[in-house]
């Protein structure tokens, strides 16, 4: 999401305030579309882990968690997009405050769903999705209430969003970063798989 910050910062620094909002809209569309294959792949977590030699019990628990926490992926992407949009305008305190508050909200919701309701791993996953949803909505509503968006966001405008040159610039900047992030993530996943093959603790 550093690319969104770059595009928004360039537009903001050049005094082209409507373009700042346009870049956010483009990124929201882009991140939502990018989440679709990611969410679909997450449904395959358990069989893929079993095929990699992870014990069935561990693979099945991971599969249950990823299926029930699907919504968290999309809310994380939206939250990160809006956060970068505001950060490019030097508005950073709200996301820090909201993040801090929802750490404790998440702990509370996990405790209630896992230990009070007895939902186990499903409760932990649902708590994650709920917390990410509530965090995103709270952040957006607070920033709207404070009017932080007024100078740069003038509503959805598909004629501005669907400009090919902007998408070309976005892809040129984003794809190399995405490939680098993927390579780094694969390193972590290999380590995780090696640890999982040692068996459940």
From TrEMBL:
GO molecular function terms listed in the Swiss-Prot or TrEMBL record: antiporter activity; xenobiotic transmembrane transporter activity
Coiled-coil region(s): none
Alphabetized Pfam families for the sequence: MatE
Transmembrane residue ranges: 20-41, 62-80, 100-126
GO cellular component: membrane
Keywords annotated in UniProt: Membrane, Transmembrane, Transmembrane helix
Family: Belongs to the multi antimicrobial extrusion (MATE) (TC 2.A.66.1) family.
Protein name: Protein RFT1 homolog
Naturally occurring in which organism (per UniProt): Pyrodinium bahamense
Lineage: Eukaryota, Sar, Alveolata, Dinophyceae, Gonyaulacales
């Amino acid at each position: 999401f550093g690319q969104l910050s770059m595009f928004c910062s360039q537009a903001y620094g050049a005094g082209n305030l409507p373009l700042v909002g346009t870049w956010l809209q483009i990124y929201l569309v882009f991140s939502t579309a990018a989440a679709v294959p990611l969410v679909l792949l997450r449904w395959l977590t358990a069989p893929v882990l079993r095929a990699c030699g992870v014990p069935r019990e561990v693979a099945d628990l991971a599969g249950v968690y990823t299926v029930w926490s699907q919504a968290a992926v999309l809310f994380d992407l939206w939250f990160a997009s809006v956060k970068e949009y505001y950060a490019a305008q030097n508005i950073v305190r709200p996301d820090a405050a909201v993040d801090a508050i929802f750490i404790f909200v998440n702990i509370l919701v996990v405790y209630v769903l896992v230990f009070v309701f007895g939902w186990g791993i499903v409760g932990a996953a649902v708590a994650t999705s709920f917390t990410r949803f509530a965090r995103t909505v709270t952040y957006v509503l607070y920033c709207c209430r404070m009017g932080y968006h007024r100078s740069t966001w003038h509503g959805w405008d598909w004629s501005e969003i669907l400009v090919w040159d902007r998408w070309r610039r976005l892809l040129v900047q984003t794809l190399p970063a995405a490939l680098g992030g993927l390579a780094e993530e694969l390193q972590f996943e290999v380590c995780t798989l090696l640890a999982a093959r040692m068996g459940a603790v």
